[in-house]
Design a protein that fits this description.
Elements: E1 2-3, H1 7-18, E2 23-29, E3 39-44, H2 48-57, E4 73-76, H3 78-87, H4 91-95
Antiparallel strand pairs: 1-2, 2-3, 3-4
Length: 98
């Protein structure tokens, strides 16, 4: 379950993904499979080749891409989330939820 987002933030992320940009959005998240994780960052791009290349830079396996027809994306949690957001100068997205 996702929460903590504003509708406008989600719209902007979706538009960036559709435009073929590497787009980031972080939100609160609860999933019984990962009880210690409280947030997730979705990194999406409609250009799969671009998304795969971006992910390889951080050691992300292309098999981890959620191949949603409209909004393909990686879900980043834990140390991947923090390290990648820091590297991409987007740590403010995560800090907002701590």
């Amino acid at each position: 379950m996702a929460f903590g987002l504003k509708r406008e933030e989600l719209k902007e992320w979706k538009q960036q993904v559709r435009n073929g940009e590497i787009a980031f959005i972080t939100h609160y998240w609860l999933d019984d499979r990962f009880p210690s994780m409280k947030t997730v960052t979705k990194v999406g791009c409609s250009d799969l080749d671009k998304l795969i290349k971006w992910g390889k830079k951080y050691g992300l396996n292309p098999k981890w891409i959620h191949r949603d027809d409209r909004y393909p994306h990686f879900d980043l949690i834990g140390s991947f989330q923090e390290d990648i957001l820091k590297s991409e100068n987007k740590l403010h997205q995560l800090n907002r939820f701590k």
